[in-house]
Fold this sequence. Notes:
Layout: E1 19-23, E2 26-30, H1 32-54, H2 75-85, H3 91-94, E3 100-101, H4 103-113, H5 115-135, E4 141-162, H6 164-173, E5 181-206, H7 210-276, H8 282-317, E6 326-327, H9 343-353, H10 355-376, E7 381-397, E8 401-417, H11 425-491, H12 497-532
Parallel strand pairs: 3-6
Antiparallel strand pairs: 1-2, 4-5, 5-7, 7-8
Helix pairs in contact: 4-7, 5-7, 7-8, 7-10, 7-12, 9-11, 10-11, 11-12
Amino acid sequence: MQETEVMSEETGLRRDxxxxxxxxxxxxxxxxxxxxxxxxxxxxxxxxxxxxSTTTGAKDSxxxxxxxxxxxxxxxxxxxxxxxRRVDSLGSALVDPRKLxxxxxxxxxxxxxxxDTKVAWQRAKQALAAVGLKEVxxxxxxxxxxxxxxxxxxxxxxxxxxxxxxxxxxxxxxxSASSAISLQSNTxxxxxILGQTTLSVKWLxxxxxxxxxxxRAAREELLVANLxxxxxxxxxxxxxxxxxxxxNNQRDAVRVAQSALDTASAVNDAVEARFxxxxxxxxxxxxxxxxxxxxxxxxxxxxGSQTDSRVDLLIGIGLSPSVKIQIADDxxxxxxxxxETPLDELVQHALVNRPDMVAAIANIRAKEARISxxxxxxxxxxxxxxxxxxGQERLSLSHTNTFDAGAPTxxxxxxxxxxxxxxxxxxxxxxAAQSALGEADSQLQQSSDRTEREVWxxxxxxHTAVSSETAADALxxxxxxxxxxVLSSYKVGLSTYxxxxxxxxxxxxxRNALFQSRSAIHTAATGLAWALGDLAQPGAxxxxxxxxx
Length: 549
């Protein structure tokens, strides 16, 4: 029997034959080892180019020393992009400079312009997309593939060789005929795959609830994101309202400062009149001038605080401080004050109504669904598989006979997948999920404590502000009467300058206390509505507060 030669899959050459390759215009002959060396050189050069391309950022580095500031290498490019991205605020187009804006209209502007609600909205949209990513696992996966090229497979075909003389002798002598028959590997069959198209379907039929738990967790996380969006609106309403009250309170402070300046001017005139008649001393005149200068200083300080509070309000809305807008100087549209509802009822209302409380429950349910998903992954998955296609192939025998054929291909079946060992991956995932559930339970308790504390504080602040307004109103009346009496008495020489200045200062302080207490009432009422979760409820006015009685 002849020795069988080992054939190459692609060329059909024997190992001891010489490879022929063309490089450039000339033809070179080299052995298999030489070819391997050349291929290795090509890969080495390509690897050098790859390393060079991935290390082009080697110049990037941290600051060289802790004692000097760092100069970013690409700072001008980033600054240029910032300049190109900076566009005029949309608020300038939405604001009517001839309109007087009250609180509800300012809140409506803020809900359109403030970036906080836009960020929360995008997060909610991402959570919605995450639900879709989980739901697609219920649908079959349909894929199409087409390939055209040349792939050669081969198989040696043995040839039957019969020695007739030996066969005749074996027959004549009654011996074995196997010595007269031999097999020789002289023929090679080549199968060339020229093209193949396939349409395949894979459909997960049953997974013991893993997909359902995954979708349930994603939907709970969507609820958390949506509630976060509502919470951002509520906080925006509270912030804009608070800035609005502070701004109007600073307006009142300017008016009080202006009134104090007028009072100081009147006192100064009275002192100078008495000085001219010899009824006032020089120190009293100097003290009156000092008080007048102090009142002018207080007025300028109040004007500066008023400007700062206006800037805070406009930025809280989402407007540029340079935007021309008229802001109402009243409390119309504010949250209605309610001091009659029992505190315990308010606390219970907040515990079931606030977005963060509902989100805390949704977070717990999401963590529980995640645990169910991991537990279901321990069970097998059953999928259906199917494919249909068309193939073009060629069969060659000894380079003489060639047969081309094309025919459709198809198949179908069921597949069962059961992970046996994953390096304890799922066990660790389950432990982490159970720990996350414990954290969510603690967060619920934390949110409950915070809610109760905030409701108590807002409720106390509201009652304190209401009581303070009543006291401050009486204080203003008493201070005004006392000041008027002392001023009249001073003009006729029956009161001292010290008594006059003291009553003037008390009158100014009482006026400030009255305006601050009025602003504090609305701020506390809005804070209570925020603590209850009643601000910016869907379908309600942005500042509406509804309390179940």
